[in-house]
Amino acid sequence: MERHIVVAKLEELAKNIQDACAKIKVDDLQSEIAAIEMAMGQNGFWDTPTEANAMVSELKRIKQLHDTWAALRENITTYQAMFADLEEKEFSELYTELLALEKQYDAASFVLYFSGKHDKEAVFMTIVSGAGGDDAEDFAGMLLRMYTMYFDRIGFLYDVHEYSDGAGDGIKKASLEVHGAYAYGMLKGERGVHRLVRLSPFKSSDSRQTSFAHVEVMPLIKNITKDDILIKEEDLRVDTYRASGKGGQKVNKTDSAVRLTHIPTGLVASCQVERSQHQNRERALQVLMSKLYQLHQDEEEKERRSIQGDVAQVEWGRQIRSYVLHPYKMVKDHRTEVELSQVEQVLDGYLDPFIDAEIKQLSRSIA
């Protein structure tokens, strides 16, 4: 192995790792870890299980991020230090070790795609049935099942804020609060219109039916307080109602569900996951403040839509992804051109190829 080849690989890898560590701010992660561990040691930490579990998940993410990149930096520094003392016959062995380290870097560097302002935040996801009647409500229920199975598989935590029954096992609308590593960065590409083509189980004829559902995704921004967003009580309409439907995890079927409407903007936030009206009101208020915060931060309509998602009509010609069950089987993303023929597998939560492609495409558009 020639010396200049080893030197080139060593310098390239060292620069990539150093640049990544600077971008991730590895040295600042220890203080974040210490702050979370201190909060976890306070009395009453587990009084709010959803927030507590989300913080535990965040601690795990930060520790893993720190340990991975600190180890990569330590290893490349070791190789740089030992290179000066190597004999020529040892270059091949070092080069092999550098290639192995490069594979570790490539695997870890996926996190570098998450450069958006809110990519680390939790997500507020809403699934709404669109054109297609009973089939659309059934399709919305299929999407809810698909996403919750995906969340369960990758270790994301979720609570159902709102759930409205539809035809059969379907839904008219469901809203989820989702926590996980880079939740918004992972899921923001899922917003938009989804289309289903199949033989309708609600019709006696064998005619093909097309139906639609809309997925809304917004970041649930942390640390927003009433001091940051001024909400006058007279600008709020508060409605209470009984939670409905299966709704996945922890749906409380009592009259404690709360829906808040901000009258000046028309923004709505609901929550039914807690056992008391007061707790549901506080959770819904946090979501509402997050929505208002975004609205206030974006001066132009185009910028606002880039965060909240385009509120498009849920109909023909606007779909981001099609799920075809008849006359053939295929799931196709119309933005990334990713296609899979294993439709049942996708509907069981295997979204990785689609989400990976979305993340990379969105990252390129920002760069």
CATH architecture of the largest domain: 2-Layer Sandwich
**H/E element sequence:** HHHHEHEEHEEEEEHHEEEHH
CATH class of the largest domain: Alpha Beta
Number of helices, where a helix is a run of at least 4 consecutive DSSP H or I residues:
10
Supply Rg: 24 Å
Q: Unreliable runs, pLDDT <50, ≥5 residues?
A: 247-253
SSE-based structural type: alpha+beta
User: If you consult CATH, what is the topology of the largest domain?
Assistant: Alpha-Beta Plaits
Overall mean pLDDT stands at: 86
Main pleated-sheet profile: 8 strands, mixed
C-alpha end-to-end distance: 37 Å
Domains counted in the coordinates: how many? 2
Shape: globular
Number of strands: 11
Strand order of the largest sheet: 2-3-1-5-4-9-10-11
Notes on the structure:
This protein has an eight-stranded mixed β-sheet. α1 runs antiparallel to α3 and α1 packs parallel to α4. 33% of the residues are buried. With 367 residues, the chain is α+β, with helices and mostly antiparallel strands. The chain has ten helices and eleven strands. About 2% of the residues have low confidence. The chain is globular, with a radius of gyration of 24 Å. The protein folds into two domains: 111 residues, Release factor (Methane Monooxygenase Hydroxylase, Chain G, domain 1), CATH 1.20.58; 250 residues, Alpha-Beta Plaits (2-Layer Sandwich), CATH 3.30.70. Helices cover 45% and strands 21% of the residues.
